[in-house]
What does this fold into?
Amino acid sequence: MPGSFGPAVSCGADQVLIKALSHPVRANALTILNQRVASPKEIAGELREEVGKVSYHVKELRNLGCVELVDTAQRRGATEHYYRGVSQAYMSDSFWATLSTAVRNGISVTGLKVLIEAARDAVEAGTFDARTDRHLSCLSFSLDEEGWEEANVLLNETLDRLAEIGARSESREGAERVRATYGLLGFESPA
It folds into this structure.
């Protein structure tokens, strides 16, 4: 499905993505729609939110150019709309540096919640450890500034490579697919 993976780009501008991620319902809906096609009703059920509230935020994402309408279906006299994401939630390092600490904290908390929920859902569904070649690691180092910069370059290169691999994989026809989630973290820990 287009939009699930692809180049790590924003919805046209970093400022647009900030608006898209500025509300937890929008951030969670965008994450879901970058993974699959879904309706606001389906998303509301998954997020345990009111359908009207989710529908409003999905329309906002559509107005921002982050999702697109792909289908409609008649359901008991109403029309259900189905959307998919057309961009990943990603901001450039240079733009991230211009944000206030409060804004960065808010976006980080939302991103961590989404990642933790995805991992929890996989554990509950029995898929997290279903494969013996899954990856989970946690490393802590005392880095000097040069090491910190080298690690960040590596993480950005890895992100770009993962996006390329995902795009190539999704373009291959006839291949059996496995839904995969990757989270890259690099942050300063308390002393």
User: Anything to note?
Assistant: Helices lie at 14-21, 24-35, 40-47, 51-63, 93-96, 101-125, 145-171. Residues 40 and 55 are 5 Å apart (CA to CA). DSSP finds seven helices and two strands in the chain. The longest helix spans residues 145-171.
